[in-house]
Design brief:
The chain is mainly α. The protein is about 75% helix and about 0% strand. The protein has eight helices and no strands. Helix 1 runs antiparallel to helix 2. The longest helix is centred in the C-terminal third of the chain and has 19 residues. The relative contact order is 0.08.
């Protein structure tokens, strides 16, 4: 099986960029062809000694109906880069300080970081909104 499913996923991402919001019948056929090729690759029986290939095949089969969701729904991104970026701050905090001193401190950090990230995604002024939240919060 090797890198074939991963190559198909890369091809699907390129296809997503060309499709737009309302795919033409020709583009829909391209999606169907891509899915059929994925099914053919996943039908190949793996050698049990190649544990990583077998494991990858099982994951692809288990999540088969979710793999190309982004091709059918315009607002679904083809990757999880936003999620990766969202956890980066937490990992940097862990790396610098080693850990949080308490579970409450970790929870508070996550809530504040979530609010800040949401404000940034909505293109709002972070400091202005944090000041507003601080004024509204009960003591």
């Amino acid at each position: 099986m090797g890198r074939k499913p991963q190559a198909l996923l890369k091809e699907a991402i390129v296809l997503k960029k060309t499709i737009g919001e309302d795919p033409s019948p020709c583009r829909k056929k391209s999606i169907i062809d891509l899915e059929e090729r994925m099914d053919n690759i996943l039908a190949i029986i793996q050698i049990p000694e190649h544990k990583e290939a077998v494991s990858m095949q099982k994951r692809f089969l288990k999540y088969r109906n979710s793999i190309f969701t982004f091709l059918y729904h315009h607002l679904v991104p083809p990757d999880n880069n936003a999620s990766e970026r969202a956890i980066r701050n937490i990992k940097v905090k862990q790396k610098i300080s080693g850990q949080f001193k308490s579970e409450r401190g970790a929870d508070d950090f996550c809530v504040i970081r979530s609010v800040v990230d949401t404000l940034i995604k909505q293109s709002k002024n972070v400091m202005e909104n944090l000041n507003l939240i601080a004024k509204l919060a009960p003591e």
